[in-house]
Amino acid sequence: MKKDAIGTHQSFRKVGQKHSGLRLVKKFFRDHDLVSAKNTLSEITSSAMNRTARIRPKPSAVLDFYLSVKSFIRGCYLLQFSHKKWLLNEPEEVASCLALGSLSEQEYAHPLRVFKSAFREHDITDFDRFIAEVSYFSLGVYAGQPGGNVVTPFIHLNKMLDAAWVVLERMEGERVLGS
User: Fold this and answer.
1) How many CB atoms lie within 10 A of CB 145?
2) What pLDDT shows up at residue 175?
3) CB proximity list for 142: less than 8 A, separation 6 or greater
4) Global confidence as pTM
5) DSSP label at 81?
6) Which DSSP helix (H) or strand (E) runs through 120?
7) Domains of the chain, residue spans
8) Partners of residue 86 on adjacent β-strands
9) pLDDT, position 15
10) In the prediction, which pLDDT does 65 show?
């Protein structure tokens, strides 16, 4: 008799479901608001660079944030390809620097270009490596530090958080051309 092997690598998403960058970004912002996400990212990064201190939240919160940011990065990667298909509301005049966040005025006017410039400088594996190393080193007191460049992926990830928030705010009734 032949024994049928049970597949252990089951996928939990629906079969045939299209990947949507906007859906992944919306899911991220449903779970985390912009300010807390930026604060958590900053706290994780600074505690990873500090060799003598551990992060204060529970390790499960860091793991949950790590997984959420990984899916957010994939969503931003997919958003960079659909920048010509979407209609966004025209930006209102920015009254203060606080409304811009970490974006320049040009990036605020065209937030989808932020993703393109971030993934032009670093690929998706660089961002994955960054968030994995920072999460790992923030959970304990280790003799080492994250290897490689930590500053530019951190800055790009902060900009992607702001740009994704601006995109979600300025969507015209969720109209997407050609989809």
Assistant:
1) 13
2) 44
3) 51
4) 0.78
5) G
6) helix 112-121
7) 21-173
8) 176
9) 41
10) 93
Q: Is 165 left (phi over 0), alpha (psi -120 to 50) or beta?
A: alpha
Give one DSSP letter per residue of 140-171, joined into a string: S--SS---S--HHHHHHHHHHHHHHHHHHHHE
Tokens representing residue 15 in the block: 């079969």
Burial of residue 29 (CB within 10 Å: 0-12, 13-18, 19+) is middle
Tally of CA atoms within 13 A in the half-sphere of 17 that contains its CB: 10
Q: Determine the pLDDT at residue 92.
A: 63
Would you say 12 and 69 are in contact if contact means Cβ atoms under 8 Å apart?
Answer: no
SS3 103: coil
Kindly give, in sequence order, each residue whose CB lies less than 8 Å from that of residue 37, ignoring residues fewer than 6 positions away. 28, 65, 161
**Residue 97: what pLDDT?**
60
**What is the token pair recorded at 71?**
């899916």
Half-sphere exposure of 56 (CA within 13 A, CB side): 6
Euclidean distance between CA atoms 34 and 80, whole angstroms: 20
Rg (CA), the chain: 18
Q: What are phi and psi of 31, to 5 degrees?
A: -85, -30
* Regions of the chain short of the pLDDT cut 50: 4-17, 95, 173, 175-179
